[in-house]
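Field reference: sequence -> structure
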Amino acid sequence: MEEEKFDGTFAGLGMIPGILIGLAKENLVLGLFLGVIIGIALDWLANILTMRD
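Structure field:
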């Protein structure tokens, strides 16, 4: 049985709050970096939650 892996699935979803934070701080580059980090964190969390089951 092969487990489902989330690899880049939430990248776009993580970019949305990152860009919003960047726009609020008036630094779009910061928002892009935060979006990438948030997307990676969401993928990591999804993989951990699916491993529990």
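Note: The mean pLDDT is 90.
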